[in-house]
Specification:
This protein is an all-alpha fold. About 60% of the residues lie in helices and about 0% in strands.
Amino acid sequence: MPRIPAKKTSEAGLFLKLVYRIAGRRFGAVPEPMAVVAHHPALLRTSVVHELLAERASKKIPANVRELAVYRVATRIGCSWCVDFGTMLQKHDGLDIERLKQIDAYATSPAFSHQERLALAYADAMSSDRVTVTDEQVAELEREFGRDGVLELTYQIALENSRARMNSALGIADQGFTSGDACRVPLP
């Protein structure tokens, strides 16, 4: 149970009810982080717009690379909600979620490509207590993905660090997106 309870639909105004309805259709349930932030309407609007714009802008690197890097951050920070939701998103994108079980061994596992290993190592370097990214690491990422790709990857990893740390601080735990218990979202 989160440290701040989710705002109920019965407490919601017209705008929030619309947001909840759209989120429910898209994800099968209202994401709990959204329902918690709903207590602060200006932050909710900011968050929704930011997430939609970031999603729309992130098209430079392959989805599998981006989603794995974001997932890695969630596992490093220990955000069970982010792991749950991220797994569901990968499943719906048609990505192989079975290999997520090997994420801790990505450096040696044949389940991950060279590009994915680079992105996962970068996610690790950006998500430790102290950022340990090196010039060489960024140069290799730029050779692989281009400058726009590095910026996109950096942005997405930083964004997931923010999400995961906020959810963890507020005690927001997994919601059952991958189990189907809370969200029966049909595969596209």
